[in-house]
Amino acid sequence: MTPLDLLWAFVVIVFWMAIAVGVPYGGLLVYCFVANWIDDHRRERRAEIERTLDRKQAELRATVLALAQALADERIAADHTSEQMVARAYLSSGRVP
To answer: What's this model's pTM, rounded to 2 decimal places?
Structure first.
């Protein structure tokens, strides 16, 4: 066997070892890259959903508070009207409350 044949055999062995070792590591690198990208995408999507929910919650809270204030205003107006009606009834009957 000539030195050139030995060199060729060494190159072939190193080549196949590089494939045997490099492919799994290359696959691992691709897997890590894809897994990281998927995690980032999920994180961004979750943050977007949370922002949307926070905005809707604020809108609903403002609506509920506005409705509660309108109801309280109506109640105050109704109480005032009721007091006026009672006072007129007493005045028209001639009795003092």
So the answer is: 0.53
